[in-house]
Design a protein that fits this description.
Strand order of the largest sheet: 15-14-16-17-22-21-20-18-19
Shape: globular
Helix content: 25-40%
Number of domains: 3
CATH architecture of the largest domain: Alpha-Beta Barrel
CATH class of the largest domain: Alpha Beta
Number of strands: 27
Distance between the termini: 38 Å
Strand content: 15-25%
CATH topology of the largest domain: TIM Barrel
Structural class: alpha/beta
């Protein structure tokens, strides 16, 4: 018999006991954004993860209202492979831990990580199917993700493992499978395990990858060898003689900071193929879960991380646009940024979250911020940023606030053990779960008027990061992103491939942050936005690269500015009005500065070799405004003024981290003081939920005094 308790709103609260048929899990829209559904009821997308179920945590979190759990990691997979050398497939380790979970909470549902990585015995038996590098090798060799033999043989074993778990006595409480591959299960390529500081390792030059590249090129060039020869600048080349570009070829830039497509097309073609290989792998194993469960189980993958890591491009997730169009994938996840996690910072979710939602996928933020209990260990992790229970609460509330305002899922995580052995922290999680349940009763729609647009393929055309060939990318994804979060106005983050789908939405500013590579269709779509008094903000080199060439003229046509190219310069500037210095102290090759012509407003001049050159400028056209910045690090107060001029609603001028949607507002403070908040409309009631205090009724503004480094979250009804 199955027992279900629901709230008055019909939202699933508790699902129980023995002898029931398999549940039907879905990801579908609910009140404006994707969420979990179980048996046609929306479910709060909040979970808890630990390496394996610990009695204290399971019981405490269950009592606090949590009913969804996840577990397992890559090291456990390597130590306890389900696929044995004799060909058998057994999941004794997983079975034991899952039953342990259910012994602590018989009502729990769970999402186990099931790894696709080949076991050690298979790796030793198949040397021709392994990942190979241009420079160096792994201490523990791994399979090539392009290997068809690996996909076929491991896929059969994976199918048996998933089938066993579905048929097991616990199978009806499994909500899905977190399909994990690559380093740490996070769908990176194996380069992420290689030393990277001085030189990329340059995977994957194996024969399986060469064959995958040939297949990719045949599709791209219509099996026309003459097109291949023209694009690769080799009249003797055939498809069968194609080789994967070496790391030396990849490192080489042929036009300042850039790989000129007219001379280096082979490298960019390989990067395109490399990313599609990983997406193909994900699709292969996720389809297995869907087939074995007859569509009843959900699939989750780690993928789509935004590019804020300073590592070689081979490790990135740049096939995200293609992955979002897969029917086999329901949910994505990523840990939030590791670079801005301290108190007072934004802890950005590393996902193009608005595109993810647009394609009906549910994103789960991995809440792995370390609590103050880590500091009490004999050898604490240096990445722990807090010292007290109150500071830990500020981080936990920030995780929840980011999730609530973006309508995403969230799992709290105990990565090092013992992070939640504190009744106050358990109570904090319980209160957040209660408010997460409440959030399902209100609109979950975004109401941002700023659209941030990214083109992840752009870096195929730039040199590797951590060199003058490419300091701009890290500066944009780290320094500039931090400023966006401090403007006092929320923004939606999309992929360039989704621009057409959002062109009619009410965004007043479009920010083209890293759109250096654009297709002709994308450029034409951008041109349609130059109307209705919109503002378009560009960074560094919008539209400079195409499949065929590099073109300054194309940039000028797109932005309405004329540019002067400089061989190299510092990514810094001085504001004309105030003399304040902006930007970052890094040297970048191939910079474009604005020519000071009629109609161009000078906002900032460069420094050093760029002295007296315009690195930030504005041009008001007939019914649109163009703003161009050579450099990252345009400060939040200047962005706020640009927003206000464009008619964007700004919640506050305080410079704190602020995010919002139609029903929720979060402030994570950088400074102490009185915070004046302007709401986008009049609300019947505003409640600050961390203190469960009604701020006011029938109000459109309020003022609240807040200490430094706290998180305040407001329910707007």
């Amino acid at each position: 018999m199955r027992m279900i308790r629901t709230t008055a709103a019909g939202i699933l609260s508790v699902v129980m006991l023995s002898s029931w048929t398999p549940a039907q899990w879905d990801v579908r829209d609910w009140r404006g954004t994707p969420t979990l559904w179980k048996d046609n009821q929306p479910v709060t997308p909040m979970m808890f993860w630990q390496w394996k179920p610990e009695q204290y945590e399971i019981e405490k979190f269950s009592n606090a209202g949590m009913g969804l759990f996840s577990f397992f990691g890559s090291f456990q997979h390597y130590e306890h492979p389900y696929w044995k050398a004799d060909g058998s497939v057994t999941t004794e380790f997983q079975d034991c831990e899952i039953r342990k979970l259910l012994s602590y909470n018989p009502k729990a549902y769970f999402l186990p990580r099931v790894f696709t990585t080949a076991p050690e015995w298979w790796v030793k038996a198949n040397p021709g199917e392994l990942c190979a590098f241009s420079k160096g090798e792994l201490k523990s060799p791994r399979e090539s993700m392009a290997s068809q033999k690996y996909l076929n043989e491991t896929g059969r074993a994976y199918r048996q493992a998933v089938r066993h778990m579905i048929d097991a006595d616990y199978g009806k409480q499994m909500m899905g499978v977190h399909v994990t591959s690559g380093p740490w299960g996070e769908s990176f390529y194996w380069d992420a395990l290689c030393p990277q500081k001085n030189r990329p390792a340059g995977s994957d030059v194996s024969e399986p990858m060469r064959l995958a590249l040939i297949d990719y090129l045949k599709t791209k060039y219509g099996n026309d060898v003459s097109r291949l020869q023209k694009n690769w600048n080799d009249k003797t080349l055939t498809f069968n003689t194609v080789q994967v570009p070496t790391v030396e070829q990849r490192i080489q830039t042929t036009a300042g900071a850039w790989r000129d497509p007219a001379r280096s097309r082979a490298v960019m073609d390989y990067f395109e193929c490399h990313n599609q290989v990983v997406v193909r792998l994900i699709d292969h194993f996720c389809k297995i879960v869907k087939e074995e469960s007859k569509g009843n189980l959900l699939t989750m993958v780690f993928y789509g991380y935004t590019q804020d890591e300073n590592w070689p491009i081979e490790s990135d997730h740049r096939g995200i646009s293609k992955l979002l169009r897969l029917d086999s994938v329901d949910m994505l996840s990523a840990p939030h940024t590791y670079y801005r996690r301290a108190l007072g910072e934004d802890a950005e979710m590393r996902q193009y979250f608005s595109s993810t939602a647009l394609h009906g996928k549910l994103f789960f933020d991995e809440g792995d911020d370390q609590t103050h209990l880590e500091k009490r260990k004999a050898n604490p992790d240096h990445r722990c940023h807090v010292n007290t229970v109150e500071e830990s609460q500020a981080l936990l509330y920030r995780e929840f606030g980011n999730s609530a305002t973006h309508g995403t899922g969230l799992w709290y995580m105990d990565l090092k053990g013992g992070w939640f052995k504190d009744e106050t922290l358990i109570d904090t999680i319980g209160r957040m779960k209660k408010w997460a349940d409440t959030s399902l009763k209100h609109s979950r729609k975004r109401n941002a008027q700023v659209a941030l647009i990214s083109a992840p393929e752009s870096e195929f055309y730039l040199g590797y990061r951590e060199s003058p060939d490419n300091e701009i990318s890290y500066g944009l994804y780290h320094d500039q992103m931090a400023e966006f979060y401090r403007t006092g106005a929320p923004f939606d983050w999309y992929l360039i491939d989704d621009l057409e789908a959002i062109a009619e939405q009410d965004y007043k500013i479009y920010i083209f942050m890293d759109c250096f590579y654009l297709t002709e269709q994308q450029r034409k779509q951008i041109e349609t936005l130059r109307s209705k008094n919109r503002t378009l903000l560009w960074f560094y080199a919008p539209g400079y690269a195409s499949q065929e060439n590099l073109s300054q003229e194309r940039m000028e046509k797109l932005t309405g500015f004329r540019f002067e190219q400089t061989e190299q310069g510092i990514l810094k500037g001085t504001l004309i009005d105030s003399g304040r210095e902006i930007g970052i102290d890094k040297t970048q090759k191939t910079l474009f500065t604005v020519l000071p012509e009629k109609g161009v407003r000078k906002l900032a001049a460069g420094t050093g070799t760029l002295k007296d050159k315009l690195v930030l400028a504005q041009k008001k056209n007939h019914d649109w405004t163009s703003i161009f910045s050579t450099i990252p690090g345009v400060p939040s107060d200047l962005l706020r003024k640009m927003y206000a001029d464009a008619g964007v609603h700004v919640y506050s001028d305080c410079g704190d981290v602020i995010t919002a949607n139609e029903s929720w507002l979060m402030i994570h403070t950088r400074t102490a003081g009185s915070k004046q908040i302007r709401l986008p409309g009049r609300y019947k009631k505003v409640t600050e939920i961390t203190g469960e205090k009604v701020i006011g009724e029938n109000i459109d503004t309020f003022t609240i005094d807040l200490p430094q480094y706290v998180t305040a979250i407001f329910l707007l009804e």
